[in-house]
């Protein structure tokens, strides 16, 4: 067994090994004892310390790191030591000092009372602990935490961290706003105990699975009633587990994105759509009725034109017959045939043409004009058309020139209609060309189309009129067209014929120089 002295020595050795400065101060504010760390820090020998006033020694501690503290307080005995002597209660405080390099040092000072049997404090023990390192780490840690919190709070999603029991250990600003509760009511609460999750079994299961099995999940459009206004919100949730070193679930992060705006917009859009559908339905009904009426009117118009054509054609035939008779009688009697007879004949021909054009256009409107397709040879048809207009051309000494390009391209089309189309364009070329004009005709095949070009060197068509010449009754120069027996219907019929075959017509023209009409017809 060790004797008391040895025990005391052992204790002193132990105290000496402690890295904190320890000193004992008596009621006269003199140091009666200290450990090695204290001695080293004040840089004096034991003899120079013992029995010296603490106000003289403590300011030397750690190159004067507590100098200010002691100089300020001990001399008037209002320092911590004096307080412990007067109250008999231990105190603890932290001293911050700045060294010559302007860096801060933190010392934690504990002063304990040592009491006699009468419970009087007869001396105090001062422990000076250098906590600079820890304080700096704490500060760094705090800065980092503040920085993390700033990042989390500025995130546009709500983020909640859970421990492995599902309790909220941290919630960012948005999460707090979403839950509409102060921080202290959120922290420590089990997330699955919030009413919206509690009553949603599926979601509850997902959270439990996340915390027990570490299975992450996403959940769309959780309906959430935000208090106190009771407005509905929709959240998209993504939750991921957190694992410890042993790969055990140590918690989870649950993130929620407020999807309310998108849902509200979608609902509004759906409402709008429904309204729109209703309006469209009503309008369609109205349009159907209008269409029906229009159809009836078109049919009426067609019937009227058909009837009128028929009614007009009969007297025209009668007039033509009587005229022919009058001419042959005059011829028989060797009498001069009156000039008016020629005029009447040409007017009858013009009216007959107008009637036939009108009938055809009415039929196209009514959809009763049908194509009778057979295989036709474009080259041959062009020549036949030229032949039938030869007399008309010769009257104006116009030459029809078939370019070598003319090909025997075969197409599948309505021969009568294509013939009508070519005759119309050729007749126009003759009509709108001067004496001794030249009309060139050629054809080619390009990308599954047979193209027929009819070019004259006549009066041409002004640029501003070109887009309209295929419209019904459109005539550039009414007087001239009428003088030439025109009706303004020819080109609109040509366009219908080309388009009914799946083709089209193009025109290139220069005023005073002539025009080229190109008819595109599909080969197959
Ligand atoms: P129209 O019976 O008046 O000739 P069209 O529909 O055949 O009617 O032609 C419409 C208008 O296009 C004509 O009035 C005429 O002004 C113009 N036009 C057609 N072909 C030619 C052409 N080859 N040269 C000049 N103008 C033309």
List the helices and strands and how they pair.
Blueprint: H1 4-17, E1 21-26, E2 31-34, H2 36-42, H3 46-49, H4 54-57, H5 61-64, H6 67-73, H7 80-87, E3 91-98, E4 104-115, E5 121-130, H8 132-154, E6 158-163, E7 168-171, H9 173-179, H10 183-186, H11 195-198, H12 201-213, E8 217-226, E9 231-243, E10 249-258, H13 260-332, H14 339-366, E11 373-377, H15 378-388, H16 390-395, E12 399-402, E13 410-414, H17 415-431, E14 438-446, E15 449-456, H18 478-483, H19 490-500, E16 504-510, E17 514-522
Parallel strand pairs: 12-14
Antiparallel strand pairs: 1-2, 1-5, 3-4, 4-5, 6-7, 6-10, 8-9, 9-10, 11-13, 14-15, 15-17, 16-17
Helix pairs in contact: 13-14, 15-17, 17-19
The structure holds adenosine-5'-diphosphate.
Residues 424, 428-429, 432, 456, 458-461, 469, 474-477, 481, 486-492, 515 line the site of adenosine-5'-diphosphate.
CATH topology of the largest domain: Heat Shock Protein 90
- Percentage of residues in helical conformation: 40-55%
Number of helical regions: 19
Give the total of beta strands.
17
What binds here, in terms of ligands, is:
adenosine-5'-diphosphate
EC number: 2.7.13.3
InterPro entries: HATPase_C_sf, HATPase_dom, His_kinase_dom, HisK_dim/P_dom, HisK_dim/P_sf, PAS, PAS-like_dom_sf, PAS_fold
Pfam family, one: HATPase_c
Catalytic activity: ATP + protein L-histidine = ADP + protein N-phospho-L-histidine
């Amino acid at each position: 067994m060790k004797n008391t002295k040895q025990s005391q020595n052992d204790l002193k050795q132990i105290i000496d090994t402690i890295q904190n400065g320890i000193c004992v101060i008596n009621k006269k504010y003199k140091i009666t004892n200290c450990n090695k760390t204290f001695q080293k820090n004040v840089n004096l020998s034991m003899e120079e310390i013992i029995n010296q006033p603490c106000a003289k020694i403590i300011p030397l501690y750690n190159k004067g790191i507590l100098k200010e503290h002691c100089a300020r307080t001990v001399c008037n005995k209002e320092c911590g030591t004096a307080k412990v002597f007067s109250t008999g209660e231990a105190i603890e405080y932290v001293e911050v000092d700045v060294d010559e390099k302007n860096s801060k040092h933190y010392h934690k000072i504990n002063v304990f009372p040592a009491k006699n049997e009468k419970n009087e404090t007869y001396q105090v023990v001062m422990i000076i602990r250098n906590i600079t390192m820890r304080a700096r780490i704490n500060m760094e840690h705090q800065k980092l935490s503040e920085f993390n919190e700033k990042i989390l709070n500025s995130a546009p999603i709500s983020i909640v961290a859970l421990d492995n029991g599902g309790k909220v250990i941290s919630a960012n600003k948005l999460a707090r706003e979403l839950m509409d509760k102060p921080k202290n009511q959120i922290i420590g609460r089990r997330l699955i105990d919030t009413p919206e999750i509690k009553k949603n079994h599926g979601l509850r299961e997902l959270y439990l699975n996340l915390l027990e099995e570490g299975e992450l999940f996403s959940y769309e459009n959780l309906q959430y009633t935000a208090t106190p206004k009771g407005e509905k919100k929709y959240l998209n949730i993504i939750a991921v587990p957190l694992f410890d070193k042993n790969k055990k679930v140590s918690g989870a992060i649950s993130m929620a994105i407020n999807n309310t705006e998108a849902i509200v917009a979608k609902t509004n859009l759906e409402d709008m759509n429904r309204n729109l559908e209703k309006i469209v339905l009503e309008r369609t009904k109205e349009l159907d009725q209008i269409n029906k009426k229009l159809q009836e009117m078109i049919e009426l118009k067609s019937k009227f034109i058909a009837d009128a054509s028929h009614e007009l054609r009969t007297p025209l035939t009668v007039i033509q017959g009587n005229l022919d008779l009058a001419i042959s009688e005059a011829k028989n009697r060797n009498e001069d045939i009156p000039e008016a007879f020629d005029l009447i004949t040409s007017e009858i021909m013009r009216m007959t043409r107008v009637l036939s054009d009108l009938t055809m256009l009415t039929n196209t409107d009514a959809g009763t004009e049908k194509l009778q397709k057979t295989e036709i040879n474009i080259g041959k048809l062009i020549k036949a058309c030229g032949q039938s207009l030869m007399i008309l051309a010769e009257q104006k000494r116009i030459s029809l020139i078939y370019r070598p390009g003319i090909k025997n391209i075969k197409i599948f089309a309505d021969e009568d209609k294509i013939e009508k189309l070519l005759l119309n364009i050729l007749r126009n070329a003759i009509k709108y060309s001067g004496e001794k004009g030249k009309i060139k005709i050629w054809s080619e095949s390009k990308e599954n189309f047979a193209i027929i070009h009819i070019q004259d060197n006549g009066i041409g068509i002004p640029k501003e009129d070109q887009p309209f010449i295929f419209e019904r009754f459109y005539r550039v120069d009414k007087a001239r067209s009428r003088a030439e027996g025109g009706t303004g219907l020819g080109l609109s019929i040509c366009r219908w014929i080309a388009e009914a075959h799946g083709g089209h017509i193009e025109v290139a023209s220069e005023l005073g120089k002539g025009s080229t009409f190109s008819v595109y017809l599909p080969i197959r």
